[in-house]
Each structure stands twice: as structure tokens, then as C-alpha cells.
Amino acid sequence: MPSYDELIWLLLALALAGSVAGFLAGLFGIGGGAILVPAFYQAFALADVPEAVRMHVAVGTSLAVIVPTSLRSFLSHRKRDAADLALLKQWMLAVPFGVLLASVIAASVSSAGMRAIFAIITLLLGIRMVLNRQNWRLGDDLPGNPWRAIVGAVIGMVSALMGVGGGVMNNTFMTLYGRPVHQAVATSAGIGVLISAPGLVGYIWAGWGEAGLPLLSTGFINWIAVAMMAPLSMLFAPLGVMVAHALDKRHLEIAFGIFLLTVAARFIYSLL
After folding, report:
1. Digits of tens for pLDDT over the chain (272 positions)?
2. Helix or strand or coil: residue 71?
3. Which among 4, 222, 223, 231 would be 20 to 30 A from 202, CA to CA?
4. CA atoms in the 13 A half-sphere facing the CB of 28
5. C-alpha 18: how far from chain center
6. pTM, whole model, 2 decimals?
7. What is the per-residue DSSP string for 127-157?
8. What residues form the membrane-spanning segments (predicted)?
9. Which candidate, 37, 18, 75, places its Cα nearest to that of 227?
10. How far, in Å, CA of 198 to CA of 212, rounded?
């Protein structure tokens, strides 16, 4: 059992992570999962949650927190009429379908497999954030269907496996096809809702009846962590939106990319 000192530091770390996750949700159009998943993984380790379910609960709980965070961020961006609502409508089936596939995978993959998935994709995203250039282009407009639907499904699947809101991947997709970065950020917040809401249901189903789940968990969702993190995330999301519309984010992208690379290295080390 963790000591009282460890619990105090754990609560402080979770409070800080929740605040940063909310700010990043507004700033980058992401749900903050890249912050939340490592924080939850360490938290559940201190609480002696078995390794077999620890990563699954971290990812599922992250998605549960992202539901209100992404919704608050999207509504804030929508007030500025910045999101591509047409793309969101087109992806209302494709993205949740990808999330459904992720839930099926999560129900059968091991903890090491989940950590490997998170580490590899985080590594690639970190490299993308550090090396990204605004003038990189694949085309002048988004591709049509079926490619657009396939991309939506892939974003939904990969994001749900990582416990993230899909912002970094959608930002990359939209900006590579000539869309303004602020429109990509605003649209990503809406995609976070399309990922996290069905993801919450999917991870409840995937973890139903699993042994070793922490106290007050439903499937792979731990409601104690959700109750603590969600309010802080929602509180700081509008601040991130305000900064996103007033600041050149290149230096922040580099800093966030370095953070992602550090997180990836930590999970790769845990697999050795």
C-alpha cells in the first residue's frame, strides 16, 4: 500500500496533469490523453493495480476524462465559428467505427501490447511535432471518399487505443491538405468528442468483469480518477482556446513534441 506522503504527491501530480490536459485540449485541439495516460499509469501503479489491467484502465479512464474536456473545448471553438462542421458530420460514423474496432482490440491485447502501441504512436507523433513545417502539403484540399472515411476510421481506432482525443493526428491530416491550422485545431476538438464518448462505452464493455480493477471502476473506467481530473480539465480548456487564437504555437509544438518523445522512451523502457 502507498504511504500517505506518496498519496499526497500523487494527488498533486494528478491535479497538475488535469490542469495541463485541459489547457492542451484547448490549445492543440487534443483531449490531453498524452498527459493523462502516463499520469494514470503511474497513479495506478502506486495504488497496486495489477500490471495486467493497469494500462487498460489508464487508457479507458483517459477517454472518460476527455469526454467533457473535448466537449467544452469544441463549444468554445464553435463560438468563434472556426470548426469544419461539414467534416465532423461526414465522420460521425467513420470515427466511432474506428473506436469500436479499438475496443475489440483492447479486450484481447495484453498490457505489454497496449504499452507498445502507446509508445510507438507517441514516438511517431513526437517526431512529427518536432519536425513539422507549416509549408508541408500533400494537396490543396482534403481527399474525398472513400479515403476521407478511411482516414476518419483510422484516427478513431488509433486514438482510442492510445486514450487520446485524436487532435494531433487530425491536425496533421487537415494541415497537410491546406486547411488553416486554427480550423484544424477547432475541428479536432469536435473529433475528440466523437472518439471519447463511444470510447468510454467501449472500454466499459472491454473490461467488464476483469479481475484486479481498482476501486469504483466500471470495466476499464475508474470513476475516482475521472471525478478528480475532469473538473480541472474542463476549467482550463477555455484558457487554452484563448491562447490558441492569440499565439504562434511553433515553439509550444516543439516543447510538446519533446514531451511526447520522453513519454515514449519511458514506456519503451518499461517493456525491456
Report:
1. 555 666 676 677 777 777 877 787 777 666 678 888 888 888 888 888 899 999 999 999 999 988 888 888 888 888 888 889 999 999 999 999 999 999 999 999 998 999 999 999 889 888 887 887 666 778 888 988 899 999 999 999 999 999 888 887 888 888 888 888 788 888 988 999 999 999 999 999 999 999 989 888 999 999 988 988 878 877 887 888 787 777 666 776 777 788 789 889 988 988 88
2. helix
3. 231
4. 30
5. 13
6. 0.83
7. HHHHH--TT--S-SS---TTHHHHHHHHHHH
8. 7-37, 57-75, 95-127, 147-169, 181-208, 220-244, 251-269
9. 18
10. 24
Q: How far is C-alpha 93 from the chain's CA centre? A: 19
Residue 4 is predicted with a pLDDT of 67
Name the grid cell of 216. Answer: 469504483
Long-range pairs, 81-87, Cβ under 8 A, ≥24 = 82/182, 82/183, 82/185, 82/186, 82/245, 83/183, 83/186, 83/187, 83/189, 83/190, 84/174, 84/179, 84/183, 84/186, 84/187, 85/190, 87/142, 87/148, 87/174, 87/187
Q: Which helix (H) or strand (E) covers residue 170, if one does?
A: helix 167-176
Domain locations in the chain as residue ranges = 4-271
44 contact partners, CB below 8 Å, separation of at least 6: 54, 57, 58, 214, 222
Distance CA(31)–CA(70), nearest Å, equals 6
Q: Are strands 217-218 and 221-222 parallel, antiparallel or unpaired?
A: antiparallel
Distances (CA, A) of 21 to 1, 68, 120, 195: 28, 12, 21, 16
- Residue 75 CA: distances (Å) to CA of 71, 79, 146: 6, 6, 29
Helix (H) or strand (E) holding 63: helix 51-78
Give the C-alpha separation, 76 to 123, whole Å: 30
The single-letter DSSP state of residue 249 is: -
Which grid cell sits at 54? Answer: 493497469
